[in-house]
Write a structure and sequence with these properties.
Order of helices and strands: HEHEHEHEHEHEHEEE
Pfam family, one: RibD_C
Bound molecules: NADP nicotinamide-adenine-dinucleotide phosphate
CATH class: Alpha Beta
Strand order of the largest sheet: 5-4-3-2-6-1-7-9-8
InterPro entries: DHFR-like_dom_sf, RibDG_C, Riboflavin_Biosynth_HTPR
Number of helices: 7
Pathway: Cofactor biosynthesis; riboflavin biosynthesis
Keywords: NADP, Oxidoreductase
Organism: Actinomadura barringtoniae
Number of domains: 1
Radius of gyration: 17 Å
Length: 229
């Protein structure tokens, strides 16, 4: 099996987005036994190559969609520009909009963070959110992920990267809008009851995948890229 390319340019080529359509990619890491978290975070599962790939995928994206649960658990800040000098916009999915607008995620972002929220989000928080971020509304009581993706596309974001968490990924899968999954398999067995990378009600129509490529590294991590059939 091929090694994960060490050359930044080769790595970018291996993960290039199609340039003729809107494309929704997710990037996740899991243990061999399927756990998406270790000590309630994903960071403990990755290694330096996983972080390198994470940064590369960000550099290729126009927008990074992430659930508020992950943004809170992982202490998200503004996306840093990659070697191209370009940073993706961050789009956070939240219904409650219970976010700290004094953190760098909002105060230091080069371009305003985007909030993806349903129309019935609490009015007072929506008001504060609009002062501190660009707000896109889709769906009534819950964000409709399929509509939110269409909205992002209509704002010119065609290379979409979802960094989870598992509850957001589940909704992309059940809405049938996930085109690709980049999965890092971490060589560890954790047992326990941590969530899988997709955490939600069963999909009525399972997303059938095809393996686009598989790389490994010297630490026995696998880097799998699957596309929707
Ligand atoms: N293994 C991996 O690759 C990976 C990747 C990412 C995260 N993680 C881990 O996964 C955990 C967090 O994942 P999670 O699944 O609990 O949370 P999540 O998917 O990141 O976020 C869930 C939150 O998103 C908002 N949300 C979800 N669906 C919504 C909808 N339809 N409409 C409006 N808001 C919606 C809600 O935010 P509000 O509460 O603000 O309304 C909800 O609490 C963390 O431990 C993180 O470290 C692992």
């Amino acid at each position: 099996m091929e090694q994960l390319p060490a050359e930044p340019e080769r790595l970018r080529e291996a993960y290039a987005y199609p340039d003729d359509r809107v494309w929704v990619r997710a990037n996740m890491v899991a243990s061999v036994d399927g756990a998406a978290t270790r000590d309630e975070r994903s960071g403990g599962l990755g290694n330096a190559n996983d972080r390198r790939l994470f940064a590369t995928l960000r550099g290729l994206a126009d927008v990074v969609v992430v659930g508020a649960g992950t943004a809170r658990a992982e202490g998200y800040g503004p996306a840093q520009p990659g070697p191209s000098g370009r940073a993706p916009r961050l789009a956070i999915v939240s219904r409650r909009l219970d976010l700290d607008f004094e953190t760098p995620l909002f105060t230091d972002a080069r371009q305003r963070t985007i909030l993806l929220a349903p129309e019935n989000a609490p009015a007072n928080r929506l008001w504060r959110a609009r002062e501190n971020a660009d707000v896109i509304l889709a769906g009534e009581d819950r964000l409709d992920l399929a509509v939110a993706i269409q909205e992002l596309a209509s704002h010119g974001f065609s290379r979409i990267l979802c960094e989870g968490g598992p509850r957001i990924l589940a909704q992309l899968v059940t809405a049938g809008v996930l085109d690709e999954l980049c999965l890092t398999v971490s060589p560890v067995l954790l047992a326990g009851d941590g969530p899988r990378i997709v955490n939600g009600p069963p999909a009525l129509k399972p997303a059938e995948l095809r393996l686009t490529h598989a790389f490994r590294d010297d630490e026995d991590f696998l880097f799998l890229r699957y596309s929707r059939r």
